[in-house]
Amino acid sequence: MLFFKRYPKEAKYSKGDFVNFRRRGELWFGWIYDAKRDKQSGAITYTIQIGGQCPSFVYEYKEEDIIGLKKD
To answer: Rounded distance, CA 63 to CA 16, Å?
Structure first.
């Protein structure tokens, strides 16, 4: 039986949003790749893709730690 992951309806950011966030004392930006709800705390965490041609991912990044949408 297959289980499909559902994107949380309460998530502030949508899949593909371009966001700013702080990591290691610097300002970074990346795309929202996925979101999930933590079963214990109920908080929404995101997987953020950084980089383009050879991307890397930041896993389980908390919603309150994201600064906001990046404007071009």
So the answer is: 15
CB atoms within 10 A of CB 54: 5
What token pair was written down for 27? 């300002």
**CB distance 9 to 16 below 8 Å:** no
Query: In the numeric block, which tokens belong to residue 13?
Result: 């950011």
- Per-residue pLDDT tens for 14-48? 999 999 998 888 899 999 999 999 888 889 999 99
The model's pTM:
0.82
Give tens-digit pLDDT for 62-71.
888 899 887 7
Query: Which of 46, 62, 42 has its CA nearest to residue 7?
Result: 46
Number of H helices, E strands in the chain: 0, 5
